[in-house]
Write a structure and sequence with these properties.
CATH topology of the largest domain: Rossmann fold
Largest sheet: 7 strands, mixed
Shape: elongated
Distance between the termini: 26 Å
Strand order of the largest sheet: 8-9-7-10-6-11-12
Number of strands: 12
Order of helices and strands: EHEHEEEHEHEHHEEHHEHEHEH
Radius of gyration: 22 Å
Helix content: 40-55%
CATH superfamily of the largest domain: P-loop containing nucleotide triphosphate hydrolases
Structural class: alpha/beta
Number of helices: 11
CATH architecture of the largest domain: 3-Layer(aba) Sandwich
């Protein structure tokens, strides 16, 4: 049964166009309703439950009975953060961004309010022997595509972390803070993890370092504790690691993963590096697990990029491949 999302805003033309966009974008799992009058909305809420109320009439909100509304999102003309009990969405931005913001906040609220009970978690690792925007873009969009069908946690372990993919205005230090807690504490790792997560629509993700050395400080034992906790926690069906560093800890993640994807660009140098990585893995005995490794060949984004922004090139070149691959996982 589809959940109900209702839109109310005194600007009727604005609300109507927003509803039309939501319906055309095929928002899976939701039926979109529009109310142009407070009386109709008030009467509806007496008898029907709403999963989400997207409300643009803040001044009249206190007059509504909200017992049948699970989550309220206020359409705000103020783009500055306001601390109160409501979720706020800036109304004067693109309809696609409004939808993305709602879905991201909704996923966060659901994560905090629900106790999932998935029987098992599947660990997927994406390792680039040579770092680059192609590999990070591929990992991000693969995680995004899979989150449409599974409950996914994406953990980006990039030594020189940037907002290249996420587009966050301020680079978070959540990863560093959580890794410090992981190394120093033995209890409450699952609860603490949730407090550091960010959201992109249906995808939960952990990223952001104060310094790349924080990754190098991880031990094999730290990784075992982290992955064991994620298994016991049962909140996710898939945990996807992007391993932008090379250490005993990162190779332990590969060793414990169900699927490992080695991301390479189609240039000879990267193939040479991959062969050397294979040799080193053989020295420590991990080459026995080679059957679960799969090479993913990506086109180099620097070839023919011209004056186009690298971010736009990466999305147009890599996203279709990630989408196609997600269909077979």
């Amino acid at each position: 049964m589809e959940k109900l999302l209702a839109i109310y805003d005194p600007e009727i033309l604005y609300a109507s166009r927003l509803m039309e966009y939501f319906r055309k974008s095929e928002w899976e799992g939701f039926e979109i309703l529009l109310f142009t009058g407070m009386d109709h909305l008030t009467d509806f809420l007496k008898y029907q439950k709403l999963e989400i109320l997207l409300y643009g009439g803040e001044a009249l909100l206190d007059k509504l009975s909200l017992d049948n509304v699970r989550y309220i999102f206020l359409l705000s003309s103020n783009n500055k953060p306001i601390r109160d009990k409501y979720q706020r969405i800036y109304k004067y931005q693109s309809a696609s961004k409004i939808k993305s913001d709602i879905l991201s906040s909704y996923t966060r609220l659901e994560d905090n309010n629900k106790k999932a009970a998935y029987d098992d978690v599947r660990f997927i690792s994406i390792y680039p022997p040579v770092s680059g925007p192609e590999k990070l873009t591929f990992a991000w969009f693969l995680a995004k595509e899979l989150s449409n069908n599974y409950k996914v946690l994406f953990i980006s372990m990039e030594m020189l972390a940037t907002s290249f993919i996420t587009g966050d205005e301020v680079i978070s230090q959540s990863m560093s803070e959580y890794l410090y807690y992981l190394k120093e504490s033995k209890e409450g790792l699952d609860t603490k993890l949730k407090s550091y997560l960010s959201y992109s629509e249906k995808l939960s993700y952990l990223s952001g370092l104060s310094h790349g050395f924080d990754l190098l400080s991880l031990s094999k034992e730290d990784i075992v504790r982290l992955m064991d906790m994620l298994k016991e926690q049962g909140d996710y069906e898939l945990v996807i690691f992007y391993l932008g560093f090379y250490s005993e800890a990162s190779m332990e993640i590969l060793n414990r993963s169900t699927d490992v994807y080695i991301a390479l660009c189609d240039i000879p140098y990267e193939e040479f590096v991959y062969k050397e990585w294979e040799r080193q893995m053989e020295l420590i005995g991990l080459i026995n697990h080679q059957c679960k490794y799969r090479k993913i060949k990506l086109s180099s984004l620097y070839q023919g990029a011209g004056s186009n922004p690298l971010h736009e090139i990466s999305i147009s070149a890599i996203k279709p491949l990630a989408k196609e691959m997600a269909k077979h996982m």
